C-alpha cells in the first residue's frame, strides 16, 4: 500500500482503518427480497443515512441563540430516539439498547481486521453491499500491506442516535443506529517479508452507523460513518 516508509504511514493514517475508518453510504441497488402484500421488494440497504445528527456528550447550555437551538435539537432527537427504541424493542426480540454498544464494537473490530488482511469476501457479513463495494475499491488502490490491531475501547461504546422507520402496509422496518466508538489502535506498515517497517498507535473517535432490516434482516451491518461533530 505504501511507496516509502514516511509516505506509507501517512497514507495508512488517512486510510479507512485509522481516523477515517468508514465513509457515509450513498444510493445503492436492491438485492435482498422482501415479500409484501402488494409487491416483492428487493432491498439490501437503505443507501443513505436516515438521520446524521449526533447527540453531544454534554447537554448544550441555553445561554445564546445558538445554544438554545442546540438544546432544542438535543431534546427533539432524544425524544425521537427514545420513541424509536421502544418501537424497535417491540419488533426485534431481544434487542437491548444498553448492550448494543458491545455488539457494535465486535462488528467494528471484525470488519477492520478483514479489511487490513485484504479479505473483502469475509467482510460481507459485517457491512452493507454499498460499504463493501467502497472498501473493495480502497483495497485495490493500496500499493502494499499493513497490520491493524485493536487495543481496546477507551470509552464504552454508546448509542448517540437511533432511527427506526416502518411501513404500515407491509410491516417491513429498517433501523439505523449511530454508535460512538473511541478506541486505541495500532497500525503497522509491512515490507515485502511481512516485517513491520514502522507503526503508530492511534486513538480515533468514530461515529459508526449500523443498519438492519426488520424482521427479515439477519444481522446488524455497518452502513457508514458520520464525521466527528465540531466542538
Summarize the structure.
InterPro entries: Mba1 (IPR024621), mtLSU_mL45 (IPR051975), NTF2-like_dom_sf (IPR032710), Tim44-like_dom (IPR007379). Belongs to the mitochondrion-specific ribosomal protein mL45 family. With 231 residues, the chain is of the alpha+beta class.
3D architecture notes:
One of its GO terms (biological process) is protein insertion into mitochondrial inner membrane from matrix. Keywords: Mitochondrion, Ribonucleoprotein, Ribosomal protein, Transit peptide. With 231 residues, the chain is α+β, with helices and mostly antiparallel strands. Helices cover 32% and strands 28% of the residues. The longest helix is centred in the middle third of the chain and has 27 residues, at 65-91. The two termini are 33 Å apart. Residues 1-42 have low confidence and may be disordered.
Question: Which class of secondary structure composition applies to the elements?
Answer: alpha+beta
What are the low-pLDDT stretches, counting only 5+ consecutive residues below 50?
1-42
**Distinct helical segment count:** 5
Share of helical residues: 25-40%
Alpha-carbon Rg, integer: 19 Å
What's the SSE pattern?
HEEHHHHEEEEEE
Give the termini distance in whole angstroms.
33 Å
- The 3D shape can be described as globular
Instruction: State mean pLDDT (0 to 100 scale).
Output: 78
Label the CATH architecture: Roll
Say how many strands there are: 8
Would you state the CATH class? Alpha Beta
CATH names the topology as Nuclear Transport Factor 2, Chain: A
Strand content: 25-35%
- In total, how many domains does the architecture comprise? 1
Question: Quick one: biggest sheet?
Answer: 6 strands, antiparallel
Domain Tim44-like: 81-227
Pfam families: MBA1
Organism: Allomyces macrogynus (strain ATCC 38327)
Main location: mitochondrion
